[in-house]
Specification:
This protein is mostly beta strands and 214 residues long. It has 2 helices and 24 strands. The chain is 9% helix and 29% strand.
Length: 214
């Protein structure tokens, strides 16, 4: 399969990590630059690649150039989805970026715009939505479903049948018991152990995880 040219939307840490995926042997994507709304980055380089302009320029890219949104924030878990919604690009303009060292079962489903980093494991009947980020070392066991725009930080472990709804953010090292549902836009603090369903838009932390009063 031929190599695909890609522009990344956002040049922060996640963007730089995504560049490194594409530089791994066996990658089928080649990043040619970034689009970023920070005016201080105009005409600068990040990870050796040019910042080509603001994210709004994505619509004017050549039709053979794919895009991937690489912004994420535990403080604003819907940030990536908002960016995608604001741009309004057709789904065919987005691509998937998967590290060659990820281990995905043949029946794994990945939505467009999703980024899968090294060491991610998906075992059986795993469904991952659009514009999801799976950071290094995540484990998704049988029948897990991850909704659009969700972010799983490094080392998240989801037991069988877990459902992560859209735009949820799970911090590094989170463990989730089988059959649990994480509500849309919920944030789970790093290292937490989740034993019960979590309502939408709440912040839970601890072992076992409990709601954090804002």
């Amino acid at each position: 399969m031929s190599t695909q040219d890609v522009v990344l939307l956002g040049s922060g840490g996640l963007g730089r990590e995504t560049v490194q995926i594409t530089r791994s042997p066996g990658s089928r994507a080649r990043v040619i630059g970034f689009l970023d709304d920070d005016p201080r980055l105009r005409d600068r380089t990040v990870a050796g690649l040019p910042v080509l302009g603001p994210t709004g320029d994505a619509a004017g890219l050549g039709g053979d150039v794919a895009v991937v949104a690489t912004v994420a924030s535990a403080a604003d878990p819907q940030r990536r989805s908002r960016l995608v919604g604001r741009l309004g690009l057709p789904s065919g303009r987005y691509t998937r970026i998967v590290h060659p060292a990820a281990s995905l079962a043949p029946d794994t489903e990945l939505g467009v715009g999703t980024v899968v980093m090294a060491g991610v494991i998906a075992t059986s009947d795993v469904r991952v939505g659009r514009h999801v980020v799976l950071m290094p070392g995540c484990v998704l066991t049988h029948d897990v479903k991850v909704g659009d725009g969700a972010t799983l930080a490094a080392g998240v472990l989801l037991a069988g049948g877990v459902i992560v709804e859209p735009d949820a953010y799970l911090g590094s090292g989170v463990r989730v018991r089988e059959g649990v549902r994480i509500g849309a836009g919920a944030v789970i603090g790093m290292g937490s152990v989740v034993l019960h369903d979590i309502p939408a838009a709440q912040v839970w932390v601890g072992v076992p995880a409990r709601p954090l009063e804002r």
